[in-house]
Design goal:
Structural class: mainly alpha
Shape: flat
Helix content: 40-55%
Largest sheet: none
Number of strands: 0
Number of helices: 4
Distance between the termini: 74 Å
Radius of gyration: 29 Å
Length: 99
């Protein structure tokens, strides 16, 4: 392969002209778009979130496809996550055995 004598250099992107100060004043006077305003959080002062994860331990296990599908359907019907359904089932199992 023959190397070119003059390597190609990409041209620099031209800078747009700076906006006049009137444009800033006009934007400030206009305020926020009502659609954008409606989606902004109401309060900025939120309590600091507790450090650490709410569930710091993770577990993984194998299950058959029919059981997984039943779990997924139960979570959908109850409008809960599969993790919530599993946590409740584990808690019930532990309590039934006095753990």
């Amino acid at each position: 392969m023959v190397k070119p004598k003059h390597p190609r250099i990409a041209a620099k992107k031209p800078q747009p002209p700076p906006l006049p100060p009137e444009a800033d004043a006009w934007a400030q006077q206009g305020g926020l778009d009502p659609e954008i305003q409606a989606h902004q959080p109401k309060s900025v002062d939120e309590p600091p979130s507790p450090k650490g994860k709410p569930y710091p331990h993770r577990i993984s296990f194998d299950m058959e496809t029919p059981q997984y599908k039943r779990l997924k359907r139960a979570a959908f019907d109850e409008e809960r996550t599969m993790n919530e359904v599993l946590r409740e089932a584990i808690e019930d199992w532990l309590k039934s055995r006095n753990y």
